TrEMBL record, chain A:
It holds the Pfam family RabGAP-TBC. It comes from the Eukaryota. It comes from Magallana gigas. PROSITE patterns: TBC_RABGAP. Gene3D superfamilies: Ypt/Rab-GAP domain of gyp1p, domain 3. Residues 263-484 form the Rab-GAP TBC domain. The chain crosses the membrane at residues 381-402, 480-499. SUPFAM superfamilies: Ypt/Rab-GAP domain of gyp1p. Keywords: Membrane, Transmembrane, Transmembrane helix. This is Rab-GAP TBC domain-containing protein.
From TrEMBL, chain B:
It comes from Magallana gigas (Pacific oyster). This is Polyglutamylase complex subunit TTLL1. Signal peptide: none annotated. The keyword Coiled coil does not apply. SUPFAM superfamilies: Glutathione synthetase ATP-binding domain-like. Part of the neuronal tubulin polyglutamylase complex which contains TPGS1, TPGS2, TTLL1, LRRC49 and NICN1. Interacts with PCM1, CSTPP1 and LRRC49. Its main location: cytoplasm. GO terms for molecular function: ATP binding; tubulin binding; tubulin-glutamic acid ligase activity. InterPro entries: TTL/TTLL_fam.
């Protein structure tokens, strides 16, 4: 393995990880099966076994496992940085994230004390049985339900729960970020950022983006535009579907990813996403999910009520996602107990909040992660799951796909970091693209008191879920997966502003600007992105 | 009835509302007034510049018992003439024409029903009063004792012609409906018919699925809970979980997206194709019996249930689909519906003239697609177009050609 891109240490980590995973024992068993075959000749033992393994698809499986590792473990530099630097290299941002986390936890704790509910409690036997029965119907509530959140909590104070924070609170924090080493000023000669994000991170410019997204250029047919109903299918759709079937049959992650750069045909999207995310369910995964479900049944967490409230406020009121309400609970509740998610904090600037066993405040040996997966949900969190309900009708596949999407992409949208795809980076990318390419629009909006990011921020945090119509969100997320980058969200946000420029230039107030941009459900995202990136 | 959707459309066109005794050009009637217009005693002849929104005897399609009767007769006729559409499988069930659940009239067919029920005693049946709408008076039956009243009636002196108040239809309840998110739903599709002979019908693209707010539960205990079983919005509206933002309605586009994503494109296309065929067959079945007054057009509300084998079932056809709106997107959709209907029925900017050829221009179709235009289909046959076949074998015609948008008349 003379690949100079990967250091010896990286390759060793990869091998170590593979050796401890299930695929290692599976491969050994498969090799034993090969050896036992009568057609194998002793003189060619190694070659024969290798060929046998390749023929039965193990080569592919191993490649997918390696691919999955490469996706989730960024290349280590040399000398290897300390763990805090892997999370976040810039000290001032690290401190800002920690301060933000303190605030969230304080808010959670005070809600706890005010409402007098414990952060976690064990459910009584009877309640556990009820929950087990109604597991698939958790959305039902109301006076004639003998079961429901309100009944379980003993009184009807669900209305007193507030989401711990909303995207606009988070935006306030980001606006306040200041690099202490950097002095911006109005005097000439000093570079001053135009927008409200004042952290000078390096973001891509349009030429780099054009290169990165070159497969989406206007002269390339795309799923989502060129396979529409009124276009004869011989022009694009048939070939695309044929190619898609071949790609799916090879079951190879990088191939699926490459194919998806031009979008996934609707009927193949579910499988392609699974292949790209390397989600392949076996008995262990099924057992693991059942274990998480048992955890939900046995213990009730305060976070559950927050999630319940969030679903009721967002997805249940959305005319595209209300149907899937029950699925959302079946995904989000186990998710908050899944300690696998803790692994992603190695490369996330955030850290899981800690709580202490009752009466042992401050004593480290009694500290636990709260919630067990370390993620405190905010207003709109459920919308990360909702669009995927259109793809998977079994909750268990839905669960694992969502979990992967979260630990690879979505976590970046609500933590402060210098990563170019973090929300700070995306906000800055949005502002700099808009200011560079639509400077008159940017200036006009600023002068009427509407900083563009204030409108676009909520789109970015939710990756547009709930703002675009569901098929468009899925087309957009195809590209997030295929290009392995969230930057397309910022590109789309700029494209939307460009598209509605004529009306935006006429507005005279922040509210008017918001009104122009309030309804995005009629937009077709791919042509917009193409126009914005490739036609200037 | 909430008429705002209609009134808005009329006002936008600058139409003048008139009183009951004045002359009129366009009459959006309800089912009672239509009887007056066409009644033998006090009805009147319509002039060439008057159009009205119902066919005189639409009940042939819209009353549950008559619809079933007409469809059964239609199937038998096709069978007799040896039409390939009437092909049956080894169990004697129609392959292409099996689109209504097994149905009997009560009290007339009570004995036939009992025989069928006894063959499969564990099935559930649904009783619907013939003359009512909006889910009123419907209940589920799984024991013969629940039908004592009709068993008595059938044994007493017969030949009291059943009035619409007393007759019921009893159909096999579809107990394996397709569930999405664990919830049962049915489909409401709007179909405009401007003529029955030749048949001209148009399908509105913006149909919707109505979801039950309560989880579907096939257990016997839930038979009485109408929230679980009936998807009519007027019933669901009374439930505790009814939501005013979306009203438990999903667009057909979302349904399609979900089915394509989870089941695949071929089966989804086949499902939608089959639904369109069912609508055409149901209209063909009554085309012979409906008086084809050229002053008339009608906008039907088709209720279809899909089972979990992705087979659609025609449940009923409504002559006066509700125009009241429960949510704002609902109101917009119904406004578009009426707008497109009017544009198809009366070419925009003109006074109605019933002598026109009833072939609307493409740009007037709006959100409608041409479902089937018998006249145009026949013209194509005459013109020797080898790809399109005549009315005897519609299946051949529709394969491969995508429907072009229909226009509202």
């Amino acid at each position: 393995m003379g690949d100079s891109n990967y250091s010896k240490a990286y390759i060793q980590t990869l091998i170590d990880e593979l050796k401890t995973s299930k695929i290692y024992t599976d491969l050994q068993c498969a090799a034993q099966v090969e050896i036992a075959k009568p057609t194998l000749r002793l003189s060619e033992l190694k070659k024969g076994v290798l060929n046998g393994l390749v023929n039965s698809g193990w080569d592919r499986k191993l490649r997918n496992a390696i691919y999955r590792f490469l996706q989730t473990h960024p290349k280590l530099q040399f000398p290897s940085p300390p763990p805090e630097h892997l999370k976040e290299p810039l000290v001032f941002l690290r401190k800002a994230q920690q301060a933000w986390e303190k605030r969230i936890l304080k808010s959670l704790n005070s809600m706890c004390t005010d409402l007098n509910i414990p952060l976690a409690r064990k459910r009584p036997e009877k309640e556990q049985k009820e929950w087990a029965q109604k597991w698939t119907e958790l959305g039902i509530d109301g006076p004639d339900a003998d079961f429901g959140w309100e009944a379980c909590q003993g009184c009807a104070y669900l209305s007193q729960f507030r989401p711990v924070y909303a995207p606009k609170d988070f935006l306030e924090v980001i606006i306040g970020l200041q690099n202490p080493n950097y002095h911006g000023s109005d005097t000439p000669g000093f570079y001053h950022l135009w927008g409200i994000v004042q952290v000078p991170l390096k973001v891509k410019d349009i030429d780099e983006l054009r290169l990165q997204y070159s497969d989406m250029s206007i002269n390339q047919c795309q799923s989502g535009i060129d396979d529409a109903q009124d276009i004869p299918s011989e022009l694009f759709e048939q070939e695309r579907v044929k190619l898609g079937k071949k790609v799916i049959n090879t079951n190879h992650g990088p191939l699926a990813q490459e194919f998806s750069k031009k979008g996934c045909p609707t009927s193949m999207r579910a499988t392609l996403w699974c292949q790209i995310l390397a989600v392949e369910l076996d008995e262990i995964d099924i057992l693991y999910y059942e274990q998480l479900k048992t955890n939900v049944l046995q213990h009730d967490l305060l976070v559950d009520s927050l999630l319940y409230k969030d679903v009721k406020l967002t997805a249940t009121n959305d005319d595209q996602y209300f149907v899937f309400e029950d699925f959302l609970y079946q995904v989000l509740l186990p998710f908050s107990r899944d300690t696998y998610v803790l692994n992603h904090f190695d490369y996330n600037s955030a850290s899981p909040p800690k709580s202490y066993i009752r009466g042992r405040l401050g004593m480290d040996e009694f500290a636990v992660n709260y919630p067990p997966n370390g993620v405190i949900p905010f207003h709109g969190f459920a919308m990360y799951v909702a669009p995927m309900c259109f793809l998977y009708k079994e909750t268990i596949t839905l669960y694992y796909v969502f979990r992967e999407m979260y630990v690879r992409y979505f976590f970046r949208l609500h933590s402060i970091s210098s990563h170019p795809q973090g929300i700070v980076g995306l906000s800055l990318l949005f502002e700099s693209l808009l200011q560079t390419h639509e400077s008159d629009l940017f200036f006009h909006l600023k002068s009427v008191g509407c900083q563009p990011l204030k409108v676009a921020f909520k789109w970015l945090v939710r990756a547009f879920s709930g703002y675009l119509s569901s098929d468009q969100v899925l087309l957009l997320w195809d590209r997030v997966l295929a290009y392995n980058s969230l930057e397309i969200l910022a590109v789309l946000a700029v494209a939307i502003f460009s598209f509605r420029k004529t009306n935006l230039m006429k507005v005279q107030s922040y509210n008017a600007a918001e009104a122009v941009l309030a309804d995005l459900t009629t937009l077709q995202v791919i042509p917009l992105i193409q126009l914005s990136l490739f036609s200037k | 009835m909430d008429k705002s959707v209609l009134l808005n459309n009329f006002e936008t066109r600058g139409w003048v509302p008139v009183g009951p005794d004045d002359d009129w050009n366009f009459y959006w009637a309800n089912v009672q007034s239509i009887r007056n217009v066409f009644s033998i005693d006090c009805g009147f002849r319509l002039t060439d510049d008057q159009v009205i929104s119902h066919f005189p005897n639409h009940v042939e399609l819209t009353r549950k018992d008559l619809m079933v009767k007409n469809i059964k007769r239609y199937r038998k006729d096709l069978d007799k003439e040896g039409n390939p559409l009437a092909e049956k499988d080894e169990n004697g069930r129609y392959i292409h024409l099996d689109f209504i659940p097994q149905t009997f009239m009560l009290p007339a067919d009570y004995n036939l029903f009992v025989e069928e029920f006894r063959k499969n005693p564990n099935t559930t049946w649904i009783m619907k009063p013939c003359g009512k709408a909006r889910g009123v008076g419907i209940f589920l039956v799984n024991k013969l004792s629940q039908l004592k009243k009709w068993s008595r009636d059938s044994k007493t002196s017969n030949f009291t012609p059943p009035t619409s108040k007393d007759t019921y239809v009893i159909s096999k309840y579809i107990d394996n409906p397709l569930l999405i998110g664990g919830k049962k739903f049915d489909l409401r599709l709007y179909v405009l018919v401007t003529s029955f002979r030749p048949l001209k019908c148009y399908l509105f693209r913006l149909g919707f699925a109505r979801f039950c707010t309560v989880k579907y539960n096939a257990s016997i205990n839930e038979l009485d809970n109408m929230f679980v079983h009936l998807t009519n919005v007027s019933i669901q509206k009374q439930g505790d979980d009814y939501n005013n933002v979306h009203g438990g309605k999903w667009t057909v586009q979302n349904l399609r997206l979900f089915l394509e994503g989870t089941r695949g494109k071929e089966v989804t296309d086949r499902l939608f194709d089959e639904m369109q065929w069912q609508i055409v067959h149901s209209l063909k079945a009554v085309a012979g019996g409906i008086s084809n007054d050229r002053h008339c057009f009608e906008c039907y509300g088709y209720d279809i249930i899909i089972d979990d084998n992705l087979k659609p079932w025609l449940i009923e056809v409504n002559a006066s689909p509700s125009l009241t709106s429960t949510t704002s997107s609902d109101r917009i959709m119904k406004y578009k519906l009426i707008n497109d209907v009017i544009n198809i029925v009366i070419p925009p900017g003109q006074v109605p003239d019933v002598r026109w050829n009833k072939i609307p221009a493409k740009e007037h179709l709006g959100n409608f697609d041409v479902l089937y235009d018998e006249e145009l289909a026949q013209q194509d046959v005459m013109g020797g177009d080898p790809r399109k076949l005549g009315p005897g074998t519609f299946r051949g015609k529709r394969d491969g050609s995508r429907p072009s948008p229909a226009t509202w008349k």
